[in-house]
Amino acid sequence: MFKINEFRETVANFINYWDSYIGLSLIMMTVSLGYWGVVADKLNATFPKNEVLFNIILPICLLIIIFLIWSFKSNRWNLYKRKTVTTGLFIKCGDFTSHSKIRRLIREMIDEIQTEFPYLKLKLYPVDFIKNENDLKIYLDKNSHVIDNALLAIVKYGNCTEESKTFEKIEITDLKLVGRFDEKNYQDYRVQINVSQDLHLRNLNKDWVYLESKSFYDRDKIKYNLRDSLLFFMGLYLIYKEELDVALQIFKSLRTVEENISLINEIAHRKRERLDEILLNIFTVNALRKYTLNNDTDTAFKLLKECEKIFVGNHKFYYANCLLLSRIYYEKDEISDAYVYTYKAAALYRDSTPVYCNMGFFGMIENNLEKVYTNYKELAHVYKHKGKVNFVDVIEFLENHKSKYSESEFLFDFGIGMLNFFYADKEVGRKALAELKVKINDNAQYVKILGLTERFLSLGSIKSPYYQRNLKAKSTKKKK
To answer: Mapped to the 3 state alphabet, what secondary structure does 19-75 carry?
Structure first.
């Protein structure tokens, strides 16, 4: 007995099978029968003197056009890629029924991903176009103008028995993710990463089984798992290619989806921690690059504030982010917020070179002699602070902002001279400090600054508490 649902299923399966050679043959046969059975007779009757054109040339041209469209639509032939990253999707499966269902899931996933991320391109290739990982690598190497990386899903099909009933079972038994990465260990900014290890962790404990008896649930499960694995891989690849803006959007999306998922075991916790670690790296380094390399202060500021909102409280880059936010707030002429973020950084690491530099600078713009004295006296411990920051940049920063605070001219001169003397150009610093000494010699207000200046010129930097002990030890050895 004819069943309409079975007919619909057959039609749906054929639609998913159109890009095979059998599909092409059926399309051409259908078009040919339609043309010679209906169209050709009408054309010949209307234009009787053009039989060669309508019986040979036109149908051949029509079949060639169909073949060209089929070749490009099935991704057998491709033009150059146009998106930020293009990923090829391949399925290895010998069974018609199973790959038809998997292809439908993948097509739905492709539509969702490309709607959310219009700068990504996913190309679904015909089933069994690639047989194994080695063939996939060869294809990727030969078609670098077409795709950047690729996913190969190995699918198996069979029947299983559950409560005395037999159901169809489809399972993705393996995922192969391939990209053109260098052999070297790549630096994920401040965290060493291994792409294969990250992918292994991300795919750990995922359920890839599709049971017909649970198709309503399993369809969404398989689609979610594929989306997660694919986006995670594409995100890592984009980091590697330094497309940080796009990578950031992908990892933010992955984290947003995970926020509503309970962490039921240690593996789930490890996955979340690694995802957060990667996302935090992207926020921090992307903001730093926007600020230092692109002079894009506004974007850097937005990235840092968004990072602070997502990762509430302290994290391993919070200290560095607070210092950069402090500087950006100052440049935005929001001095009170600049103070706030320097104090936040100081609360984490008070005895740090950047904090002393910032505190000293705030002392200058406040014309607060005591604050300048305290922080620059600390910076005179060269053995502690040398190499911790680029003091040439600090000196340049002070020189650029000195003119804004004429009442603090001597304090700026002191800071610039002292930093030059110990960390940049010693002779320039010596001259600047000597000139400052003359200017403030009779001004009681600057007595502590004068004393520090004289000390630097006569004794140099403040030595380590172990300095004298080491000198005595060396002297004893010489006597022996």
So the answer is: CCHHHHHHHHHHHHHHHHHHHHHHHHHHCCCCHHHHHHHHHHHHHHHHHHHHHHHCC
For residue 128 the two structure tokens come to 């069994």
Residues 364 and 412 sit within 8 Å (Cβ to Cβ): yes
Q: Cα dihedral angle (321, 375, 467, 384), rounded to 10 degrees?
A: 10
C-alpha span between 348 and 344 (Å, rounded): 7
pLDDT at residue number 167: 75
The one-character DSSP state at 83 is S
d(CA 354, CA 371): 15
- Per-residue model confidence (pLDDT) at position 468: 46
Separate counts of helices (H) and strands (E) for the chain: 22, 7
CB 341 within 8 A of CB 329: yes
Residue 30 to residue 20: CA distance in whole angstroms? 15
What does the alpha-carbon distance between residue 273 and residue 254 come to, in Å, rounded to a whole number? Answer: 13
Residue 458's pLDDT is 93
Q: Please give the pLDDT value at position 190.
A: 43
Strands 149-162 and 85-92: parallel
**Is residue 191 helix, strand or coil?**
strand
pTM attached to this predicted model: 0.80
Query: Phi and psi at residue 95, in whole multiples of 5°?
Result: -100, 130
Closest CA to 236 of 251, 255, 253, 256: 251
pLDDT along the chain (480 residues), means of 10: 53 63 82 84 78 84 88 79 86 72 86 93 90 91 90 84 73 86 52 74 87 78 92 91 93 90 82 92 94 95 95 86 96 95 94 96 96 96 93 96 94 97 96 95 93 93 60 49
Sole residue written with tokens 């509430």: 312
How far apart CA 24 and CA 218 sit, in angstroms, is 31
DSSP 374: H
Cβ count near 380 (within 10 Å): 20
Closest alpha carbon to 154 in 141, 129, 171: 171
150 φ/ψ angles, rounded to the nearest 5 degrees:
-155, 155
The owner of tokens 């200290």 is: 319
